[in-house]
Amino acid sequence: MTEQPATLGGAPAVTIDQAHYSQWPIYTEEEAQVAADLIRNHALSSAIDGPGPITELERRVADTWGVQHAIAHSSGTTALHTALFGVGVVPGDEVITQSAVHPFNCLPIIGCGAVPIFADIDPLTTTLDPADVERKITPRTRAIMVVHWKGIPADMDAIMDIARRHGLKVVEDNAVSQGTTHRGRMLGTIGDASAISFQDGKLTSAGEGGVFMTDSDEVFQRAATLGHYERLKELPDPKWRAVSGFSFGEKYRMATITAAIGVVQMKHWRKRLDVRHANAAKLGRAIAEIDGFSVPDYPDYFPSPYQSGRILFHPDRLGGISRDRLIEALNAEGANVRSPARRDSRIPHTDGLWRMLHKHPVFTGNEHGTEDILWEVLGPNATKIDYKDVVLPVTEDPEIPYDTIELPSFTRPADDLIDQYAKAFDKVATHAHRLTATRA
Ligand SMILES: Cc1ncc(COP(=O)(O)O)c(C=O)c1O
């Protein structure tokens, strides 16, 4: 007989202090030392000439991803802007992307003077639905910006096939899926260009920052002219080299202190990622052994997600329990689970970010005619579209992904904690019928 669930007065199953296991990023004396050295040496600014933390970080990222070119940036968002500029997005173009994440994939599109076109998402992976991407193509479409979401890649076979058939470029927003593969290839190396983020919540972290990457010499050279005036004199193509001493964009380079911290992080990165991955696999397996839960049946083009794994629950085997009630009961047990369906009607969300971008007043307007702001900012090159007509049934469904809950990611070996999580799920499953009966 399992113990009483915590929501019915029992003791919580998870008693281990989880702060240590959830700590991210993991900074040590090593980061403090390199930062202090830069300050002592008055080396906080760099013109990129010669060796230094910025070139070192770029080399480490290029080697890790196996790409020809990497450029360190002030943020993931600026690196995405560079990627779009590098593949040739110009004012008035349309770029297809998804609406349901954060604004960050969309802002660089507008930064290029291009029009964001929102396509729907796949209900299981919550990444771009290739069929809807193809429906959204017009003669003005220049590029597709895919977002790989927390270790779940977009369907890159289908996206690349569409891009090839229609002569489009593909930019991968890989800000939150660093290290994940798609059919064995690192995400960020499949499209024409990509960007990762080094903001603290991401799998590569150094406070703030981002890295643009590409295998194409042409994309790299064009990209470098956006905000990296100091490195243009080395470019092989005289056309792009001629921009030297000038730039087509603002200064986008990373601070040396960020790069130095990033270099230390990259030394330990693969090992730390493997720990997260092993924990995610163990946790998923342990919960899936309990009647009423299973691992979602993801496409076979990628290993299981490990930034925030998801588990599927089966209400028919759990007394008809709702997602909210299940999360409430597990939270009471001390299990830090949450809903991955964060595109609900309560927008903007508590953090102030809009996760259904096509519903934002910038696009849909309000009584003050706000939507005109977008067309004012984009100028006469942009062909106006009416975002009020944009309907994205899957994106707008507040239950998507159906019957799944999001699991935490443990950053240090966590076998005992995983055992306690399994116990929490087991208690809740055993008493699920009582939990639904006592629903307030
Ligand atoms: C999907 C996605 N793309 C891009 C970014 C932007 O990265 P940064 O915060 O480094 O600008 C974020 C940040 O949260 C993100 O979640």
Concise synopsis of the structure shown:
This protein has 440 residues and is α/β, with parallel strands linked by helices. The chain is built from 16 helices and twelve strands.
Can you describe what's shown?
- The chain is an alpha/beta fold and 440 residues long.
- The protein has 2 domains: 256 residues, Type I PLP-dependent aspartate aminotransferase-like (Major domain) (Aspartate Aminotransferase, domain 2); 112 residues, Aspartate Aminotransferase, domain 1 (Alpha-Beta Complex), CATH 3.90.1150.10.
- The protein contains 16 helices and 12 strands.
- The strands form 3 sheets. A 7-stranded mixed sheet has the order 1-9-8-5-4-2-3, sandwiched between helices.
- Helix 10 packs across helix 15.
- It is globular.
- The two termini are 25 Å apart.
